[in-house]
Structure formats: structure tokens, C-alpha cells
Design brief:
The protein contains 24 helices and no strands. By secondary structure, the protein is mainly alpha-helical. Helix 19 packs across helix 20. InterPro entries: Na/Glc_symporter_sf, Na/solute_symporter, Na/solute_symporter_CS. It is a multi-pass membrane protein.
């Protein structure tokens, strides 16, 4: 495992820093204990009894995604590629989040399914359900491992704890509050963690900008350094995509990232959808991703900009070091882009604020891992264990199973942390996983939701062949047959998975028999009565500021302005 010379990164945490950390951990575990008192059924444990208000689920929706990989990975991307990294937010998140709230949540919430794979079971039958459930469970364990690895390496470098001690302590804390209070504990902690992360990153960004002479100083220094002026504007983003052609780069960003990867992640990824499903009403469920879109569009300013500042102020990442890393070689200093945020914290933060910053980083790692665990235990317990292994048991049996599965998932995540340690930029790892699992699922989902003719056989075969197509692209890239620097490989793999899934699904549908229309009511758009997709507009759901479509329109306009401005 890469370790930058420990002396370079070791932060001299004072007593006040440790007190702040200890207080934070007590608070997190206390929330888990209090949430446990509200858990009496499996629905309470896995979906918070569908009882939470929209602002809570909306912040949890974002915090669940604001994990280690988002905070560290996006700052690494900022150091490596500059402002084009904002595409992961303004192109690769906001449009899909708005689509989820306006179009897809009525189907999820209205059908009363407990998970995304359960929706697949009702629409396409057991084969597609099994493929989706198993692949989702695998992906969550791999991503949870990445969160754990990052957390451990950070604690090791900042505080001097050994990697394994860091991994086990962090895993135990997340395990305790998730196993105690289920989704409610995870969600309430995610809301707390959202504010802790902001408290850590906003001062870091402000102090960093002051150090480089403000925004204009940062632009001057980045433009004059390795990577140059293309890193100062989000479009066309050639360095990020790996395409020499501006047209192909924009096409890759808009279709590969903005459509396939983004819609695949935000609209079918149960980690996110689960938070909206925990809402107390259809209106709250629809507003959850839309409320989340507002903070999401401004997060680039506190994760990407610190990475850009690090690349022009931190000795280990400047000049020849950055050029070597851009060329795919080891930096003379031994640093990697993943170290950008830590190195900047080391250089600019005094004690006291340092404790808040470390708590913020730990919060981001734990939020991400808790989201992985809470969605894994729901899908494994409901969609695999209850459906295929132990059917028709009392509800208390599945509640206990969920807690046991959480323990097993934590142990597996400790194992998969080793895989994540082999990547110098963890966003590469993450986008690769999404191209395998999310891109084909989105193709199957969107086709099945709007095309009533699509058959059960098409559902599972499209998923399998779409995933295989992404794996083939990945293998060809690893062998050097396809030469796509940047994150172009995952964009191309996602497009291949989507196209192959659609082609196979259409082909198989033409030679197989569809389900009767009466079995597809509530699962296919054209066969679902409009009344079932509507929500209350009185009481707690009244007021113009609670109208999902209006809120989505405001968010869309702001996002377009940001794309033009930067």
C-alpha cells in the first residue's frame, strides 16, 4: 500500500482535537442507540417505517453519496483535471436526481416495493431479480471496502494509528449504529455528518483560496502549471474523458456520464432510492432527491477547489510532481492525487479546526459506508434471503437476520478494502464499478418502464450481456488494446453496456411472450392510472415550495447557469 512519508503528513493533533473527535463518536453512537427504540418491525429497520420528513431524507440522500470516495476522490480529480470535474455534479448528478423525483419516485413509492430489485421482480420475474439483487449486493461490498480503505489510510497518516486498527475501529462504529437503529440511525447520522463535512471543508476552501491570492490567483497558478488552461473551464473536458476531439469529449460527457452513468446511478441505485422510500408521503418521497439537488450543485466548490489549490500550493503535488502523475508515472515526492486534501489540511489548518476537519473526513467515510451497509442488508435480507432461502418466517426473524447480515457485510468490506488500495485515483475504481452494474440496469429499467411489450427473458438477458459488454471494454483497456486515458474507459464501458443491453432486450423480446397487461399495472407508465401517481397537496404537503415539479425547474435553471458560468 502506498504510504507517503509519514512524517510529511502526520498532523500534530492536540488534546482539543482528540476531545472533538471523541465527542463526535459519542454523538454518532448515541443516535444509533436512540433510533433503536423506534425499531420494532423489519419495515422500521430497513425503511424507517416510511415515516421521515422530506428535509431529513433530502439531506441524507446527499450525505449518503458524500462519502469518502466523493470527498477524497473529487478533490483528487480536482488536483488532476481541474474544473471539468464539476461535470460529475452538474451533468453527472443533478439532471438524473430531478428525473428521479419527478418521474420515477411515484413508481417506487406508489408500488410499495421495499427495494429496487423488488421492483425488478414484479416487472421481470425471478431471474432478473436474482441477477440485479446479487450484482447490487456485490457492488455495495466493494464500494464499502473503498470507503474503509480511505478512512484507514487517512487516520494512519494523520494520527499515526495503524491501518488495521483504523479499519477495525471505523468498521465497528458504523456497524454498531447501523445494526442497532437500522436505516433511521444511518439517516439521522447522515444528516449530522452532512453538517460536520461542511464545517470541515468550507474553512479549508476559504483559507486555501486566501493562500493562493483568491479566485484569480488560483486561476493564474493552475493555468501556468501542468495541465494548463483546459483545467480552468468545465467544457470540453478533454483531459477528463481522454478524447482528443472536443466533439467526442462533449459526447462522452453528455451521453456516457450525463445520461448512462448518471441516470443509471441516481435512478436505480438503491443506496439513494432507499432514502426517498423512507419518506412519510409520496410528495416527500418525490421532493427528497430534488431537495438534495440544491446542496449537491454547490458541493464542487468545497471538494474540487481544495484539490486545485493543493495542486498549485503543496510541494509534493506541484510542478514536476503533478506532471509525472499526469503522465501516468510515480511522482518524485511519492505523493498521489488521492493525497491532495490531506496535504492541504496539513499545510493550512491550525489545531482546533484540525479536529473538526478530521471529524469531517471521518464523517464522510462513515456516511458512505453506512449507506452501503444499510442498502446491502435490505437487499440481501428481503430480495435474496426472504425470497429464495427462508420464506414465510415471522417478521422478527427477518429483523434479526438484517442485524446479522450487517455484521457479515462489515467483515466482507474489511476484506474488499484491499482491492481499493490498488487504485491511485479512487474515482477511476468507482466509475468502473458503475459501468459494470448501474449502466445496464438503467437500460433494462427505463425500457421496461416505458415499453409494455418487454418480456421477462429480455429483463435478465439484457442485464447479463450489458454487464459483460462493460467488462470486455475494461479488459481491453487493461490489456492496452483500447488506449483511453482519464476516465474515458468507464464512459465508453457504460455506453457499451447500455447499447448492448437495449439491443439484446429488444431482440429477445421479439421472440418471447410478454406478460398480460393486467399484471403490469403500476409497473409500466402507459398502464398505470394517473391518479396513483399523484400526491397530496394539503396539510404537510401544501405550499408552492413543496411542489416537486416547480422545485425541479428552479434547480434545473441554476444548474444550466453554473454550466455556462464555469
Amino acid at each position: 500500500m502506498h504510504v507517503l512519508a509519514a512524517a510529511n503528513l502526520r498532523l500534530d493533533a492536540s488534546a482539543i482535537d482528540y476531545v472533538l473527535l471523541a465527542f463526535y463518536f459519542v454523538l454518532v453512537l448515541g443516535i444509533g442507540y436512540l433510533a433503536r427504540r423506534q425499531v420494532s418491525t423489519s419495515l422500521d429497520f430497513f425503511l424507517s417505517g416510511r415515516s421521515l420528513p422530506a428535509w431529513v431524507t433530502g439531506l441524507a440522500f446527499i450525505s449518503a453519496n458524500l462519502g469518502a470516495i466523493e470527498v477524497m476522490g473529487m478533490s483528487a480529480n480536482g488536483a488532476q483535471y481541474g474544473l471539468p470535474t464539476a461535470h460529475y455534479f452538474w451533468i453527472g448528478a443533478i439532471p438524473a436526481m430531478l428525473f428521479l423525483g419527478v418521474v420515477m419516485m411515484p413508481f417506487y413509492y406508489g408500488s410499495k416495493v421495499r427495494s429496487v430489485p423488488e421492483f425488478m421482480l414484479r416487472r421481470f420475474g425471478p431471474a432478473a431479480h436474482w441477477v440485479n439483487g446479487a450484482s447490487f449486493a456485490l457492488a455495495q461490498i466493494l464500494i464499502a471496502g473503498a470507503n474503509l480503505y480511505l478512512l484507514a489510510s487517512v487516520v494512519n497518516l494523520l494520527l499515526g494509528w495503524s491501518i488495521w486498527v483504523s479499519i477495525i475501529v471505523a468498521a465497528l462504529i458504523v456497524l454498531v449504529y447501523t445494526a442497532l437503529g437500522g436505516l433511521s440511525a444511518a439517516i439521522y447520522n447522515e444528516v449530522l455528518q452532512f453538517f460536520v463535512i461542511l464545517a470541515a471543508l468550507i474553512p479549508l476552501t476559504i483559507v486555501g483560496l486566501y493562500k493562493v491570492g483568491g479566485w484569480s490567483g488560483l486561476m493564474d497558478k493552475v493555468g501556468a502549471g501542468p495541465g494548463g488552461t483546459p483545467q480552468l473551464h468545465s467544457w470540453p473536458g478533454n483531459q477528463l474523458t481522454g478524447f482528443g476531439s472536443n466533439f467526442l469529449s462533449v459526447l462522452g460527457l453528455v451521453f456516457g456520464l450525463g445520461f448512462v452513468l448518471s441516470f443509471g446511478y441516481w435512478t436505480t441505485n438503491f443506496v439513494e432510492v432507499q432514502r426517498a422510500m423512507a419518506s412519510k408521503s409520496m410528495s416527500a418521497a418525490r421532493r427528497t432527491p430534488i431537495i438534495g439537488a440544491f446542496p449537491k450543485m454547490f458541493i464542487p466548490f468545497i471538494v474540487i477547489i481544495p484539490g486545485m489549490i493543493a495542486a498549485v500550493t503543496v510541494t509534493e503535488l506541484m510542478g514536476d510532481n503533478k506532471q509525472a502523475l499526469l503522465d501516468g508515472k510515480a511522482a518524485p515526492s511519492g505523493a498521489k492525487f488521492n493525497d491532495a486534501l490531506l496535504l492541504l489540511m496539513r499545510d493550512v489548518l491550525p489545531n482546533g479546526i484540525l479536529g473538526v476537519a478530521i471529524a469531517g473526513l471521518l464523517a464522510s467515510f462513515m456516511a458512505g459506508m453506512a449507506a452501503n451497509l444499510s442498502s446491502f442488508n435490505t437487499v440481501f435480507t428481503y430480495d435474496i434471503f426472504q425470497t429464495y432461502i427462508k420464506k414465510n418466517r415471522p417478521d422478527a426473524y427477518y429483523l434479526t437476520t438484517g442485524r446479522v447480515v450487517t455484521v457479515i457485510a462489515t467483515l466482507l468490506a474489511i476484506g474488499t478494502a484491499a482491492i481499493a488500495s490498488t487504485y491511485s485515483n479512487l474515482m477511476d475504481y468507482l466509475q468502473t464499478l458503475f459501468s459494470f452494474f448501474n449502466a445496464p440496469l438503467f437500460a433494462t429499467f427505463i425500457l421496461g418502464m416505458f415499453w409494455k411489450r418487454m418480456t421477462k427473458a429480455a429483463g435478465w438477458s439484457g442485464l447479463v450481456f450489458g454487464t459483460l459488454a462493460a467488462i470486455v471494454i475494461f479488459v481491453l483497456s487493461e490489456m492496452g488494446v483500447l488506449d483511453l486515458p482519464g476516465q474515458g474507459t468507464s464512459f465508453v464501458a457504460a455506453i457499451a453496456a447500455f447499447v448492448v443491453d437495449i439491443v439484446v432486450s429488444v431482440g429477445v423480446t421479439m421472440v418471447t411472450k410478454p406478460k398480460p397487461e393486467e399484471e403490469l399495472v403500476g409497473l409500466v407508465y402507459s398502464l398505470t392510472p394517473r391518479d396513483t401517481l399523484k400526491h397530496e397537496t394539503t396539510g404537510e404537503d401544501a405550499g408552492w415550495y413543496r411542489k416537486p415539479v416547480l422545485l425541479a425547474g428552479i434547480a434545473a435553471v441554476i444548474t444550466i447557469v453554473l454550466n455556462i458560468a464555469f
